[in-house]
Amino acid sequence: MWEIILAGGPVMWPILICSVGAAAIICERLWTLQSKRVIPRELTERVWKLVETRTLTEQHIAALERNSPLWRVVAAGLANRERGREIMQEVIEDSGRHVVHELERFLNMLGTIAAISPLLGLLGTVTGIIEAFEAITSQGVGDARVLSGGIAEALITTAAGLMVAIPALIGYRYLRGVVDGLVVEMEKEAIKLVQAFDRLGAQS
Q: From the CA atom positions of the chain, what is the Rg in Å?
């Protein structure tokens, strides 16, 4: 493996850095974006019971805010429940934008890695071909071994760039879909919150 990396030339190093970065981002986001961490289902019924029985306290809200991204959004709405529906919706939407930004953390970087890795491979191909032509210029074409170094560099970097880009692109698309799904679920829970307070207001 080490010999292959060395044969790939200097362009292999940024490709390796990209591979480590992509693997780290994918693993971190898969852990962070687990549904049970973002939208803990066991809390939902408990919170709505507190809302409907009017026993929700500021301590409950503070605890919710520390619990998960979803409940950070819900807690922002609950903290402003006395200020009317429009204010509550504005606060929820503002908090939601911040939470979505956090859920999408590192995804742009992963997309960038997926985009530049093939280009780095192409750069390695070009430098390898240049090296091969320089060998031909200086030593002629009588010995095929003269060309082997440059051709090997070109092929290795091309393959390495694609091997990094393909999983990175798959990971980016998958994680983007996960975030989109979580955002939809968070919007549903936020709507439930507003509707719950509408019902309470109508009963008052």
A: 27
The domain total for the chain is: 1
Q: Phi and psi for 72 in degrees, rounded to 5?
A: -65, -40
Number of H helices, E strands in the chain: 9, 0
Two tokens, residue 123 = 């750069």
Please, are residues 155 and 188 in contact by the beta-carbon 8 Å criterion?
no
Q: Write out the H or E segment, with its range, that includes residue 85.
A: helix 85-103
Are the C-beta atoms of residues 48 and 196 closer than 8 Å to each other?
A: yes
Output DSSP code: residue 142. S
Degrees (nearest 5) of the Cα angle 84, 61, 32?
115
Shortest CA distance to 62 belongs to which of 71, 53, 51? 71
Q: 176 near 161, Cβ under 8 Å?
A: no
Q: Tokens 């529906």 map to which residue? A: 85
User: What digits encode the pLDDT tens for the residues 160-188?
Assistant: 999 999 999 999 999 999 999 988 888 88
Domain that holds residue 37: 2-203
| Contacts for 118 with CB less than 8 Å, ≥ 6 apart | 161, 162, 165
Pull the structure tokens for residue 37: 């961490």
Q: What is the pLDDT of residues 88-138, one digit of tens each?
A: 778 878 888 888 888 899 999 999 999 999 999 998 888 888 777 776 666
Report the length, in residues, of the chain: 204
- CA distance linking residue 84 with residue 81, whole number of Å: 6
Output the pTM of the full model. Answer: 0.80
